[in-house]
Each structure stands twice: as C-alpha cells, then as structure tokens.
Amino acid sequence: MIAPLFPLPNIVLFPKTPVPLYIFEERYRIMIREAIEGSREIVIALVRPGGETGPGGVPGVHEIACLGRIESYEELEDGKYNIVVVGVDRVRILREVRHSPYQRVEVERMEPPLPGGTAEEIAGRQNRIGGLFARFTELATGTRQQATELMPQLDFDALVNMVAMTLNLAIDQKQALLELDDASERCDALIPVLEQQLETLVLVRRFEHIKPENPHLN
Predict the structure, then answer these.
(1) End-to-end Cα distance, the chain
(2) DSSP characters for 31-91?
(3) Most buried of 34, 60, 91, 174 (most Cβ within 10 A)?
(4) Helix, strand, coil share (%) of the chain residues, nearest 5
(5) Residues of the chain with CATH 2.30.130.40
(6) 147-185 pLDDT, tens digit each
C-alpha cells in the first residue's frame, strides 16, 4: 500500500495506542488535509540519528514504523491542525514513491504473530503488567479511576503497547520495542523497566511533602 509518511524525531507510535499531534509545518498541513479528505491513514516513523538512509532506502527514517489513522482533528484559524492519531498496524517501509511536497512511501503491513507462551502464561503476563501499570498510573495521576476504567478495555497487545508509549524511555529503546515481533517479548522487556520506574515514583510520592525550612540551603 502507498501512504503519506510523517517522520518524527521524538515519537514512536505503537498499534492500538493514541498520540496527539500539533501540525504546523506547511507541507505536513497539506499532508494532513489530504489524508483527512482520503483514507485518514498516515505512516509515523522515527527519524534516524543524523537523518541517514535506513535499510529500506527511505531517507532519514527507520524501516519499521506504524500505520496510524487520524481519529479526530481540529483545524485552527491559521490552517494548522490539532490531531489525534491511533496506531493501526506495524509496517515495513519498502521505498519512497514521492518526495514533494511531502514523502509518500510504499509499505507492507506486518501481521502480528500470536503472543508467545500458553494462554495461562499470557494471562499471567497481562495480570502482572496490568497491575503494575494501574499502580503506576494511580501514583502518576493521583487517582485510581483512570486506571480502573482503562484496564478492562485493553487486550494484551494494547496494554503492552500502552505501557511502552507511556513510560519514560529513551526514544531508541521505544523503537527497539516496536521492532519486536512478539508482544510477550515486548511485555517481558517492559516489566523490569516499569517496576523500576514505579519504585522511583513511590519514593518521590513518599518524600514530596518534605521541604527544607530554608530552600536556599542544601
């Protein structure tokens, strides 16, 4: 399939997860307007360091990317856009078919394999990462309601990908997670990171009420 390419330096989109974007550059305003009038699908790909050409021969971006759908948009008075894109499928970028005014690329969808492990093992992983993420979300937002409402709506893949999108990870780590074929592998890679960030967050919340009498002294 052929789709518009939106290269971004600091965002990795995962299937079944949303991301809000502010579109201000002229060529991408054109791209979003044409996408809205068409299929609403765009490919979001991480820019390579230094903009070097990837294995697929497309300048400046990683070969493995995510096809997303524009679920909602707001066109501003100056022609810029606020949009929300939801990841649909992982894709492999094969080649560039047009460069101006914005890139269009040929991609192939990467069919998601079944998660590795037995049904019991997958359920165990889902319960483990779901419980950690609910606690993390509760501490980060100050309310349990968001986590309680969100968890039942997510299947295993969506939950794992939501954790990957939410955690504070280096962008190259997120790209590496996107490139993993198996959601169980992605889950196993995320659990220790989630545990570590949760532990840090617990400590922050425990001591945040303690303030020095004189903040200028340390």
Answers:
(1) 59
(2) HHHHHHHTT-EEEEEEBPGGG---TTS-TTB-SEEEEEEEEEEEE-TTS-EEEEEEEEEEE
(3) 91
(4) 40, 25, 30
(5) 2-109
(6) 667 677 789 999 999 999 999 999 999 999 999 999 999
Closest CA to 81 of 119, 127, 126, 29: 29
Q: Give the residue carrying structure tokens 């960030």.
A: 197
Find tokens 């044409």 and name the residue: 34
Q: What is the CA radius of gyration of the chain?
A: 20
Model pLDDT for residues 34-90, shown as the tens digit of each residue: 999 999 999 999 999 876 555 555 668 999 999 999 999 999 989 999 999 999 999
Separation between Cα atoms, residue 56 and residue 90, nearest integer Å: 15
Q: What six digits make up the tokens of 68?
A: 């997303």
Q: Tell me, what amino acid is at 30? A: I
Half-sphere exposure of 180 (CA within 13 A, CB side): 22
* Fold for the domain defined by 2-109: 2.30.130
Q: Could you tell me how far CA 207 lies from the centroid of its own chain? A: 31
Tokens coding 152: 């039942």
